[in-house]
């Protein structure tokens, strides 16, 4: 009897996989795909990893001070990962869950928008094919940052904008306003897709849109008002950070930035989507995907095709004009609709029998690529991206703090990302003094920090630097310690300096 209950889920799965292909429900296949994708990228890393990547630790540490703006980015990503941290009480599970939530939501809305132009079956195929892009695999899934939180809002803007111009319903315009505000609170790069959709609207404008468009813009600005006030109150730190990024002297890196940076950006971005394009070509070659037959020709240059081309073209144009170096991870949303756009433009159709094999292949590729990535980082001494401090650093710092005071550790500072990890992994969620600067941490109260004291963590063990910091911050003592790094077969260590500025002795 027990055996029967034990194998009943396996029997159900076998029955589903062996069922007649003609009876396959595309939405059911898509549901299995999203479920499998989520489980792979939450369970496996949560079991195998004891730390998170630097951008994730940074957002976790920022979130200990709830604010409408921070010194580098808008707040939405920080809010989400810290909500997950409070929910799960585990940084690894919180980080991977937040990342998977964003990517799964992105895939869902890619499917919903694509379905309007290709139908359910081909939308499922296009969506699963899009997930073969490197932005949906391994490193990019494991590292939650502002690019991750921006992606679903970028795609939702496209989805609700498409609904607005086709239905002109008030609720769609309201949703468009909400996701537009959310996208800006996620990352300012979202202004690109807002600009792209406005350009499309200019070509397809009708006067019936005017009132609802103005209403949506007003609602968006209303939602953004607290953020804009916070940015001004904090001295426009986020805009200062962006200005520093785009105003770097490009000639320092290359003699011809206006030519070399766009070419490099195009090469890198195409490299990230190359796996998806290669598999699409393979399926066309094997006739699992083929041009539509006996169907009425459709308009080729539709909104879906526009979304597949315009974002990348705009960014390359900006890079060409300004000489801006495009970071690889900035391309997260550019190719969201590339595969659907190709299928729409060339009117490609998939065979019904392709759905289940493609589902199996997609889950196999995602689990396999994740396993290879984790194994390479775990076993090889060359790859150190996932080898970071975590719980042991927090425990050592807490023990050292307890030697001097029984007060809780409320504030931390440091350098080289160690301050982020210390703040993220201390259980009492201390606030971060960013780069030892109150200007970069305007949400902190100087007098309160002086009353509570401060723990600093500094890379290495440089006696001269340590004595300078001790004098500057009126620290009581410091010590050099070796901290083990996580996620490695052969234990690796790094040396840091812990420095205590006890309560009532902090420098104002």
UniProtKB/TrEMBL annotation:
Ranges for domain Glycosyltransferase RgtA/B/C/D-like: 73-228
InterPro entries (UniProt xref): LipidA_mod_glycosyltrf_83 (IPR050297), RgtA/B/C-like (IPR038731)
Keyword line: Cell membrane, Glycosyltransferase, Membrane, Transferase, Transmembrane, Transmembrane helix
Subcellular location as annotated: Cell membrane
Regions that span the bilayer: 29-49, 93-113, 144-161, 173-203, 209-229, 303-324, 358-376
A cellular-component GO term for this protein: plasma membrane
GO function terms (MF aspect): pentosyltransferase activity
Main location: membrane
Keyword S-adenosyl-L-methionine applies: no
Keyword Membrane set for record: yes
Its membrane topology: Multi-pass membrane protein
Pfam families: PMT_2
UniProt GO BP: lipopolysaccharide biosynthetic process
Protein name: Dolichol monophosphate mannose synthase
UniProt source species: Legionella moravica
């Amino acid at each position: 009897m027990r055996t029967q209950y034990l194998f009943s889920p396996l029997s159900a799965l076998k029955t589903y996989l062996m069922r007649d292909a003609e009876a396959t429900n595309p939405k059911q296949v898509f549901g299995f795909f999203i479920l499998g994708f989520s489980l792979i990228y939450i369970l496996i890393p949560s079991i195998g990893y004891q730390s998170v990547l630097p951008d994730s630790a940074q957002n976790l540490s920022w979130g200990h001070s709830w604010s409408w703006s921070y010194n580098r980015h808008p707040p939405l990503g920080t809010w989400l990962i810290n909500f997950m941290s409070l929910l799960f009480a585990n940084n690894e599970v919180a980080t991977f869950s937040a990342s998977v939530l964003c990517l799964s939501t992105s895939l869902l809305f890619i499917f919903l928008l694509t379905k309007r132009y290709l139908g359910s079956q081909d939308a499922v195929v296009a969506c699963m094919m899009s997930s073969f892009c490197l932005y949906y695999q391994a490193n990019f899934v494991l590292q939650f940052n502002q690019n991750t939180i921006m992606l679903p809002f970028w795609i939702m803007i496209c989805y609700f904008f498409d609904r607005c111009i086709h239905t002109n319903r008030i609720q769609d315009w309201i949703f468009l306003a909400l996701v537009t505000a959310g996208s800006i609170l996620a990352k300012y790069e979202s202004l690109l897709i807002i600009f792209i959709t406005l350009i499309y609207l200019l070509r397809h404008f009708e006067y019936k849109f005017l009132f609802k468009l103005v209403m949506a813009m007003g609602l968006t600005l209303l939602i953004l008002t607290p953020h804009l006030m916070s940015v001004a109150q904090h001295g426009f730190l986020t805009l200062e950070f962006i200005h520093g990024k785009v105003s770097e002297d490009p000639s320092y890196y290359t003699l011809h930035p206006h030519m070399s940076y766009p070419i490099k950006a195009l090469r890198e971005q195409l490299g990230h989507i190359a796996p998806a394009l290669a598999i699409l070509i393979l399926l066309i070659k094997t006739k699992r995907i083929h041009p539509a037959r006996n169907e009425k020709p459709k308009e080729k240059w539709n909104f879906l095709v526009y979304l597949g081309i315009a974002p990348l073209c705009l960014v390359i144009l900006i890079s060409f004009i300004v000489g801006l170096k495009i970071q690889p991870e900035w391309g997260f949303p550019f190719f969201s609709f590339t595969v659907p756009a190709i299928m729409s433009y060339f009117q490609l159709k998939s065979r019904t029998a392709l759905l289940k094999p493609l589902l199996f292949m997609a889950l196999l590729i995602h689990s396999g690529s994740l396993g290879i990535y984790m194994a390479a980082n775990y076993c090889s001494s060359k790859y150190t991206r996932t080898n970071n401090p975590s719980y042991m650093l927090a425990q050592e710092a807490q023990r050292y703090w307890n030697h001097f005071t029984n007060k809780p550790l409320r504030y931390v500072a440091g350098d080289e990302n160690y301050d982020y990890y210390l703040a993220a992994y201390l259980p009492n969620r201390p606030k971060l003094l960013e780069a030892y600067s109150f200007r970069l941490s305007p949400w902190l109260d100087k007098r309160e920090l002086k009353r509570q004291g401060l723990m600093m963590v500094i890379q290495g063990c440089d006696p001269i630097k340590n004595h300078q910091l001790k004098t500057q911050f009126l620290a009581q003592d410091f010590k050099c310690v070796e901290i083990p790094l996580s996620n490695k077969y052969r234990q690796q260590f790094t040396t840091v300096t812990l420095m205590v500025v006890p309560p009532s002795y902090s420098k104002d």
